[in-house]
Amino acid sequence: MVVGWFKKLKTSLSKSSDKISGGIKKILKSKKIDESTLQELEELMISSDLGVESSSKIIQELKKSKLLNPSSEKVKEIIKKKLKETLAPLEKKIDLTKNLFVILVVGVNGVGKTATIGKLAEKFLKDGKKVGMVAADTFRAAAVEQLKIWADRTKSEFFSAKELSDPAALAYKSVITATEKKLDILLIDTAGRLHNKTDLMNELSKIIRVIKKIDESIPSETILILDGNIGQNSIRQAEVFKEICDIDSLIVTKLDGSAKGGALIPIAEKLKIPISFIGTGESKEDLAQFDADQFCSALLGIE
Amino acid sequence: MFENLTKRISNIFDKIKGSGVIDDTSLQNVMREIRIALLESDVSLSVAKDFIENVKSKAIGQEVIKSISPDQMIVKIVNDQLTELLGSENDSLKLNAKTPVLFLMVGLQGSGKTTTSAKLAKWITKNNNKKIMMASLDTYRPAAQEQLIKLGADNDIATLETQENKSPLQIAQIAFESAKKSNFDILILDSAGRNHIDIEMMNEVKEISEKFNFSEILLVSDSMTGQDAVNTAKNFSEQVNLTGIILTRIDGDSRGGAALSMRHVTQKPIKFMGTGEKIDDIEIFHPDRIANRILGMGDVVTLVEKASEEIDEQEAKQMQQKFLKGRFTLLDYSKQLDQLTKMGGIQSVLKYLPGLSGLKEKMEEKMENNDVFKKQKAIINSMTPRERIHPELVKASRKMRISKGSGTNVQDINKLLKQFKKMSQMMKKMGKNKNMDSIMNSGQFGDIQSLINKNKPIQ
């Protein structure tokens, strides 16, 4: 299965890695590794959403290594090594340490929270777990219906309330009921919110505060969903959500497009938030355990 | 949106300000810094490079105008270039076609197409008085059709009922006939979100776009999009005949570079921007004003427009008189607070003012200022009418009473009184200054009226 997703990730990242590795090849064939080459390399990384700071760090690394005849493979290995040093310690496997294991899913609008919950449920279902879903997005039109369909698809228990009702109250009740029903996992879907909207962020901390009254240790896992298409703003999103709700891990979605999710690098450098999964497509199986080595290889087009 | 870019660019300009001569090296440095500022704001690399090249070539070819210093010259060139990149004027929607006039919304998943469809429908209904119907062609995402129907029901916009087991193209046909039969002026078709490298899905939308005679095909795009914005925009514009772009979530703190990239790649105008979660949170995109905002030159025009929507002109004049004569009371102050709140609070006003974008940030750090306003309102409301006109009456026991009535503490009351006293003193001073009028008429704020006329909404 791992090989399967690696292939998939590679095909999905191939456009981007073609760009990077193709670009590196082109640069190195035509020129010696001088200042302007380094600058172009830096720009190539920037155009994969790695950001100016992280990219220039890597360039410093390249400068130090003083390659006489830099083959594109060598340069890529150095870049990969650097990227992997940052990402490898952050690989995260979610351990279902207890029953009921409550997973709270948060993020800005349109990043793919609901679809990711569906995929997570599918995964847990396959592991023989009893899963519940809570439609705590009581704000967006038809958000409840959308999650309901995912619940049906994955045979999950479904918890919802009237539109515009208090999501914290619903979350509280659902945790109680799910415990009574002896479910293994409860996935709470929250409304998308821009991280700079204080009111909405307060609503989120209220949800957490309220369910903590049942048990201080829940949510067992708070997951922030990031959209792979988003650029440097992802860093801000991670920063602010981390402040409000103590993010346990990240899931990066939509990596089947031509975007690279390169913003993961600066996020990892600055915030050191573990990464649990990546989203690689539209169907319910398209969710893969995050693997730093394979992610870096795929990003750089290394076989 | 754009705050980061604004900050960076104003820092760069601050550095060169006042330097009499700008030589080649310092120009190079400025350009390098601008390039980094653009890249950090998610402007795509190729676009940033083009931008720098254009600025450079203009700067070199430029005759030195005597009245303008070299630093101002660079600011001007960058400003011109930015405006050009964003498109210089707003392009209106094409509404004059055979009815039903057809709109198609396209974009990646999660970019905000459905919400934007409803916002746009509401906006056109309000501003152009048209009868609009919406239909969702999204047969993939669970409950997508229901979402649009709900949005329609909540906002009095007609929608096509849910279509089971039909292809997107079939639904488009059904919607078209239904809109025609019921004499709708405009039909907005909301297509499913799709990955721009998914060939099958792109062919599907291409087919729909060619089957009908669309007046507008709008690419809806998240303003937080990163470097890949160029590819998205490119692929969509190659497959369908885009007529424009709508940027969403500009109320986030994104750096907005995607706007510049997509406009540059497609050469299609950005027509609207989504500014919040509510149905009315959509605005016409005015490139020139946005460019000014990015360069920290403020956007007084939009502020004036916003103000005129919320403030009664007569009342404002009276208020100004009171201001200048020093007869401003707490009651007037409370009215001002209301108006500010209506306009979205002090921060939203500050960001439009020249040179004050930095101040806005400081204010945000300092206070949850809308809460402060609420407190101040409560305090004023708990005062007697006499106290509101003569705040000097408010001494210890009155303060106790007011604090109980307003649920605040005495320190809050002291703070308000102190602040109000300072304000009155300042205003009296301003009133004595005969130069005020001449400052207002100096033309520093541009010919606002003509700008407003130029940017009037769509006819």
What features would you describe in this structure?
- The complex is a heterodimer of chains A (303) and B (459).
- In chain A, a hairpin with a 7-residue loop joins β7 and β8.
- An eight-stranded mixed sheet of chain A has the order 3-2-4-1-5-6-7-8, sandwiched between helices.
- The relative contact order of chain A is 0.18.
- Chain A is of the alpha/beta class.
- Chain A is elongated, with a radius of gyration of 21 Å.
- Chain A starts with a helix and ends with a helix.
- Chain A has helices spanning 2-30, 35-46, 52-65, 72-87, 113-126, 143-153, 167-180, 198-212, 233-245, 264-271, 292-300; strands at 101-106, 131-136, 157-159, 185-190, 221-227, 249-253, 275-279, 287-289.
- In chain A, α5 (113-126) runs parallel beside α6.
- In chain B, 58% of the residues lie in helices and 8% in strands.
- With 459 residues, chain B is an alpha/beta fold.
- Residues 435-459 of chain B have low confidence and may be disordered.
- At the A-B interface, α2, α6 and α9 of A face α2, α6 and α9 of B.
Note the topology.
The complex is a heterodimer of chains A (303) and B (459).
Chain A: H1 2-30, H2 35-46, H3 52-65, H4 72-87, E1 101-106, H5 113-126, E2 131-136, H6 143-153, E3 157-159, H7 167-180, E4 185-190, H8 198-212, E5 221-227, H9 233-245, E6 249-253, H10 264-271, E7 275-279, E8 287-289, H11 292-300
Parallel strand pairs in A: 1-4, 1-5, 2-3, 2-4, 5-6, 6-7
Antiparallel strand pairs in A: 7-8
Helix pairs in contact in A: 1-2, 1-11, 2-3, 4-11, 5-6, 7-8, 9-10
Chain B: H1 3-16, H2 24-40, H3 45-61, H4 70-86, E1 101-106, H5 113-128, E2 132-136, H6 144-154, E3 158-159, H7 168-181, E4 186-190, H8 199-211, E5 216-222, H9 229-239, E6 244-248, H10 257-266, E7 270-274, E8 282-284, H11 287-294, H12 300-310, H13 313-325, H14 330-342, H15 345-350, H16 357-366, H17 369-381, H18 385-389, H19 396-406, H20 410-432, H21 435-440, H22 448-454
Parallel strand pairs in B: 1-4, 1-5, 2-3, 2-4, 5-6, 6-7
Antiparallel strand pairs in B: 7-8
Helix pairs in contact in B: 1-2, 2-3, 3-4, 4-11, 5-6, 9-10, 12-22, 14-17, 17-19, 19-20
